[in-house]
Amino acid sequence: MIRNDWSIEEIQEIYNLPLMELVYRAATVHRTYNDSHEVQVCTLLSIKTGGCSEDCSYCPQAARYHTDVTVQALMKKDEVLSYAQKAKDAGSTRFCMGAAWREVRNNRDFDRVLEMVKGVNEMGMEVCCTLGMLTEEQAQKLADAGLYAYNHNLDTSSEYYGEIITTRTYDDRLETLDNVRKAGVSVCCGGIVGLGETHEDRINMLRTLATMPQHPESVPVNALVPVKGTPLEHNQKVNVWDMVRMIATARILMPKSMVRLSAGRTSMSISDQTLCFMAGANSIFAGDKLLTTPNPSFDEDMEMFDMLGLKPRAAFKEDGCDHHHHHTAAATTA
Ligand code: SAM
Ligand code: DTB
Ligand code: SF4
């Protein structure tokens, strides 16, 4: 049974279970609702890099911090499509394009992104974008172009949000998520562990996600990648048990969502990652780069999959209907 009425007390109780019990319960839920041998393989591409006006204190792309990121204007459509083809050939089924924008503006750059979305969709991959804040009209235009999913993270609890970002509000984030939903686009929304938040903040964020009228179809759990020049560069390395708790709790609260073990895998061993899969993670970003920071290579990940007996999940697979290609906007409503 999928629930949207989780209380803080119930979530606390789950999150604080003895670790083995927590992982066992999460693994049980995972096996009940999903094919536990399958892991979704997604590829990220930064189509517009750096120079962002926001002050997200974890982010290497914020213009105000002095990081090693080089500003790059919006890429050309053909260049993006050739990256997408490479990702597809390597076995990726979801292609996510990220732009270091505060919000989408109605200009030629947006028109070009719409063309990219169309192109990637026509290649038979699930297309995802993460472009900052969106209006309902912009979300609809993306949907019409063939967008499958939109990523927009809450990052942390509403209480802690102001410590991490001051240039926009939690409500701004929720409003964009609402606009994405209204356009019938699949929602990808999660957060980051390691920002300096408390366990209570993590539980509060999970509650916000798990009490949405419809759970996000994907829930990325990122471990902070501390980047030199950002205010969080000296934050303590995220402890693997915290990642496991977060993933397992997300899995129990949102049984059918894809829980993505996202940023931070380069500092996790194969056994650490195995625990995360055991706890219900069933999606990763593959390819040697996330947006601006390193990630394990495709080959390393495929070796890991072989060793663990995991297999990449097919594209457009939902509720047991396989090979269900969504080439038109009308069919994207999940
Ligand atoms: N600019 C858009 C936005 O903020 O929504 C889209 C791109 S932004 C880089 C996407 C997400 O990447 C952020 O919401 C955050 O969760 C994640 N992220 C950025 N920097 C990170 C870091 N250093 N470690 C972990 N996650 C990070
Ligand atoms: C998400 O939750 N994680 C991805 C994706 N959504 C856009 C981004 C991770 C970025 C890590 C830092 C970087 O590479 O710049
Ligand atoms: Fe800009 Fe997004 Fe980075 Fe924030 S997370 S600084 S909005 S690119």
Tell me which CATH architecture applies here: Alpha-Beta Barrel
Overall pLDDT: 94
Task: Say what the CATH topology is.
Answer: TIM Barrel
Question: Which blocks of ≥5 consecutive residues have pLDDT under 50?
Answer: 319-325, 327-334
Distinct small-molecule ligands in the complex: S-adenosylmethionine, 6-(5-methyl-2-OXO-imidazolidin-4-yl)-hexanoic acid, iron/sulfur cluster
Q: What's the number of structural domains?
A: 1
- The total of beta strands comes to 10
| Biggest sheet record | 10 strands, parallel
**At the fourth CATH level, what is the homologous superfamily?**
Aldolase class I
Secondary-structure map with pairings?
Blueprint: H1 8-15, H2 19-33, E1 38-48, H3 77-89, E2 94-99, H4 108-122, E3 126-130, H5 136-145, E4 149-151, H6 158-164, H7 170-182, E5 186-188, E6 191-193, H8 199-210, E7 218-223, H9 240-253, E8 258-261, H10 270-278, E9 283-286, H11 298-308, E10 311-312
Helix pairs in contact: 1-8, 2-9, 3-4, 5-7, 8-9
This protein binds S-adenosylmethionine (SAM), 6-(5-methyl-2-OXO-imidazolidin-4-yl)-hexanoic acid (DTB) and iron/sulfur cluster.
